[in-house]
Specification:
Two copies of one chain form a homodimer. By secondary structure, chain A is mostly helical. The first copy, chain A, is 56% helix and 9% strand. In chain A, helix 1 (28-47) packs antiparallel against helix 5 (116-156). The interface between A and B is large, with 76 and 76 residues. Chain A binds a DNA duplex through residues 6-10, 13, 53, 55, 70-72, 80-86, 106-110.
DNA sequence: TATTGTTATACTCTATAACTATA
DNA sequence: TATAGTTATAGAGTATAACAATA
């Protein structure tokens, strides 16, 4: 953050007039996008204190909860292609937070584990995540949060997948 | 879609076991992300029928509702930097859907308008968007949708911005 | 000096193709 | 022949710096 102000043409200007968004404001997909961007911005910001991105946090969490899981399963569970998962895990391993170990009975696969430093860092990250969550729950209340999570899960339940796809 | 099957190593495999996501499943930011990805995938798919991306749809919608608005205001209202807005609008103009026109009294600025073909296409896109919305509303009901939109707007109301940032 | 629009550029995320070593 | 992991690469989306024309 030792960056000189420079010229900075690109600050977002405040709008002079209220803009009519039309049907956009009634589209769930747009409301979801806006909310996700807002919360993710905050979440990204607090994780960056420890040089961790949201995707790395979720990977650490899955490894913690499922030690020994193979890469394919971990990457699938966080919605990543294995091809993009490799460099992410490379960095976690390079930083000494996670480790790949051989799996007995299948020399192709690798089981994933957290190191002790990885577990220690994750404990701090979880604390930050809890505070982040509380900050936004304050806006809608505990009941609002419960309703919201329930609605979101129902919305994405694969049992109700839309026709095409 | 005339693409030969080829080898396709990268299909996502179904997981063998249920993976414990730990605190992730209770984090609103992750639930929002998953829901947004699911709905956006569907939305993107139906817009692609007319070779339109979600951002282009929202720009067309804002221009329709606010004809003559300058580029800076349109790009701000859809959350884009003006620098990224330029090529998006270039394409809409090249396809004859939108047009830049001079603004009386300020020769730097350009007012944005829909062409007749742009209006006609947007009418079709709106119909598709309505069907998309209905498809997902079917999962949570009209009441659920109203609750969801209300919760999402409260969550992102700038009047309740979190402390840092 | 500041603003509108623009170009060039870089970085992150995501996606496809193709390889290796094992099974 | 199929699977686990990997490499290389391409495409979106988003970010900053810097410029010309105009205010």
């Amino acid at each position: 953050m030792t960056k000189q102000p420079a010229i900075d043409d690109n600050a977002i200007p405040a709008p002079d007039a209220v803009v009519d968004l039309g049907p956009l404001s009634g589209l769930t997909v747009y409301a979801l996008r806006n909310a996700q961007i807002a919360l993710n911005k905050d979440f990204q910001h607090i994780m960056a204190q420890h040089d961790i991105r949201p995707a790395q946090f979720s990977v650490l969490e899955v490894i913690k909860r499922n030690p020994g899981l193979r890469q394919t399963q971990v990457s699938f569970s966080v919605g990543m292609k294995t091809t993009n998962f490799v460099p992410l895990l490379d960095e976690l391993e390079r930083r000494g937070l996670a480790a790949r170990r051989p799996i007995a009975g299948d020399r192709r696969a690798r089981g994933l584990f957290l190191t002790q430093p990885g577990q220690d860092l994750l404990a701090q990250l979880e604390q930050l995540a809890t505070e982040h969550e509380a900050r936004f729950v304050a806006r809608i209340g505990a009941d609002g949060r419960a309703q919201l999570l329930s609605l979101l899960h129902r919305l994405t339940d694969p049992a109700f997948d839309p026709p095409h796809g």
